[in-house]
Design brief:
The chain is of the alpha+beta class and about 80 residues long. The protein is about 40% helix and about 25% strand. It has a single domain, classed as K homology (KH) domain (GMP Synthetase, Chain A, domain 3, 2-Layer Sandwich), CATH 3.30.300.20. The longest helix is centred in the C-terminal third of the chain and has 14 residues.
């Protein structure tokens, strides 16, 4: 899941070298934190959070195969 979020985020931003993705597991829940440059924050979130919702939807669909809950936090 970490690699999926990283690929999506790097394709959206102007400074892909500043994209940092960390993954933490708590039982059946996985928390993925996405950090981008301050100037790229709007590109990752999108108008009214549409891009952020789309990223979360794609990750949730990918995680449904492994029967885990995945949470994506944009920091």
């Amino acid at each position: 899941m970490k690699e999926l979020v990283e690929v999506i985020a790097k394709s959206l931003v102007e400074h892909p070298e500043e994209v940092v993705v960390t993954e933490k597991e708590n039982g059946r829940t996985t928390v993925i934190e996405l950090k981008v440059a301050q100037s790229d924050m709007g590109k990752v979130i999108g108008k009214q959070g549409r891009i952020a919702k789309a990223i979360r939807a794609v990750v949730k669909a990918a995680a449904s195969k492994s029967d885990k809950k995945v949470v994506v936090d944009i920091v």
